[in-house]
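We modelled the chain as a single entity of 179 amino acids. Its sequence is:
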Amino acid sequence: MNRLTVVAIAALATLASGLIAWGLGSAAGAADARTACSAAEDRTTAAHAQAAASAATSVLYTERDVRQLLDDQAANLRKDADREKASRDRIAADVRAGAVRMSIPVAAAAPGAAACGAASAAAAGDRHEARAELAPETGLALTAIADDGDDAIAQLNTCIDAYNGARARLAGQQLTEVR
């Protein structure tokens, strides 16, 4: 073999070993890149799972707070309604027993007496206006209408308070901390 052939073979051997070394190095680099990418994906997945768990916990606490608010509002409404009913029942019993009389103002029968009575009533503080006494059951029927209105207003006010409280809690205000 001549010297040129030996140099060519040596150059080819050197080139081949360089290419093999480069190929092995790039394969190792690709493996390292795949490992780093997999680790980054695992960290992202763990962070997303943590955020989802935190959000779910927050939603559960908010739901619990809103439910407690609504339960408290309903209990207060029932307690107030029971107290009002007891008061109304006592008054109704007193009216039926004659201990309490119900009357309404009426216009005076005689026109002259009305004018004279109006002037003196104004001077006396309206103590002597003409009044008509109601039959007990008629008076109770009239107060039942007013009582129904009072009950409806109390229910609507409770509904408004419950809505505003739930809205505030759902908007992130006044949340109970994790216990």
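As a brief sanity check on the tokenised model: The CA atoms of residues 10 and 154 lie 102 Å apart. Helices lie at 3-97, 111-124, 136-170.
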